[in-house]
Specification:
Blueprint: E1 4-9, E2 12-17, E3 20-25, H1 26-38, H2 44-58, E4 70-73, H3 109-116, E5 125-127, H4 140-149, E6 153-158, H5 166-174, E7 179-183, H6 189-195, H7 201-217, E8 224-231, H8 239-249, E9 253-258, H9 274-280, H10 284-287, E10 288-291, E11 296-298, H11 301-306, E12 312-313, H12 326-336, H13 344-347
Helix pairs in contact: 5-7
């Protein structure tokens, strides 16, 4: 079994692979995390687009001729748990950090397909999750199948603390999903539930075992399971137990990440000088984009949560020229031109800061 163990904070990552310690940026960590699964979706057209996209990012072009390499899609805007570090906190209440669109319910398949139409030819990978629990959307299996049929990689991050029928477990195995990240922040119910409030540790373990058993019978399934462990002061002594559990479950990978508030409170968000922030760069506004559950296209995952307005509807991406919407051009300019002030949200973004 190829078990990878990684320690990460959004800004800096240590990856442990066969005992070797390597340090890299969060961007490189995400590449390394996804690369083994993503490369099989490479085509000449995607390679050409990716080359142009990376060139435009490195040279800090503000007007782009490339399309996004990946998307993050909020297929479900609510959750069954109440994790304190999550923007939702397990509620569906409208607040400044919980946009009103989340009251509209889970994304419909028809809207999903309509929103993806212009993006599919360039995409390597789609993350089908944001703050909500994606498996609460019963149409997610059709969405994954659509992407798989169009040669796009898929990843779902889940708390997996749901009572799945045998039929649903089989859907997860058969729909074409390639990467499943299961949040498991403890080796016992007591430590696990301190963060995953409302979650059932034994149910998560049972679901993993059931899925692994089915995958062992279906040799052709592309699905790889990763356990993600958020490490806090109260559970950091459980690393050994988590390694043992991951091996026992036979998962593909164990990732250990430093737990944080995820920017849920103002004091936790750093406010760096503009020059230092520019030096940390930003890759999301060049390489990717986000789509929320009502089909709105956002500049980045962090932006919508903290107040950067969405730029239109994803279904109008080509017809309205949203890749080069004035708002996102301004954001790109701010990272490449000292005379253009950075957006206040960008100054505080966890994705572009590096750990000291």
């Amino acid at each position: 079994m190829n078990l990878w163990i990684a320690q990460s904070k959004k800004c800096k990552t240590r990856v442990f692979l066969s005992g070797d310690l390597k340090t890299t940026s969060s961007f490189l960590f995400q590449i390394r995390r996804a690369l083994p699964i993503t490369l099989k979706h490479l085509t000449f057209k995607k390679l050409l687009n990716a080359s142009v996209c990376l060139f435009e990012m490195v040279t800090k072009r503000s007007v782009l001729h490339s399309d996004p390499l990946y998307l993050r899609i909020e297929v479900c805007p609510y959750c069954n748990l109440r994790c304190p570090g999550c923007m939702l906190g397990g509620t569906r209440e409208v607040s400044e950090s919980n946009p009103g669109h989340r009251l509209e319910g889970a994304m419909k398949y028809i809207l999903f397909e309509e929103s993806l139409r212009d993006f599919v030819p360039s995409l390597f990978r789609v993350w089908l999750y944001d703050e909500g629990e994606p498996f609460l959307n019963g149409e997610i299996y059709d969405m994954i199948h659509f992407l798989s049929a169009n040669n796009v990689g898929t990843c779902v991050s889940t708390n997996f603390s749901l009572k799945f029928s045998d039929e649903t477990i089989e859907k997860i195995a058969d729909c074409g999903l390639e990467h499943l990240i299961v949040a498991l922040d403890g080796s016992t119910q007591e430590s696990y539930s301190r963060y995953r409030r409302g979650g059932d540790f034994n149910l998560v373990i049972s679901n993993i075992r059931r899925l692994q058993s089915l995958l062992s019978e279906k040799k052709s399934s592309p699905l790889k399971i990763e356990i993600q462990f958020l490490e806090f002061e109260y559970n950091k002594e459980e690393r050994g137990a988590m390694r043992k559990l991951a091996k026992e479950l036979g998962v593909w990978r164990l990732t250990i990440m430093e737990g944080c508030s995820c920017g849920a409170d103002e004091e936790s968000r750093p406010d760096l000088p503009e020059d230092e922030r520019r030096d940390k760069r930003c890759y999301e506004i060049w390489l990717g984009a986000t789509i929320n559950s009502i089909g709105e296209l956002g500049t980045c995952d962090y932006g919508e949560d903290f107040g950067i307005p969405n730029i239109g509807f994803a279904k109008d991406y080509k017809s309205e020229g949203l890749r080069n919407h004035p708002a996102i051009i301004q954001l790109r300019k701010s990272f490449g031109n000292n005379s253009v002030p950075l957006n206040d949200i960008c100054k505080q973004c966890h994705w572009t800061i590096k750990k000291r």
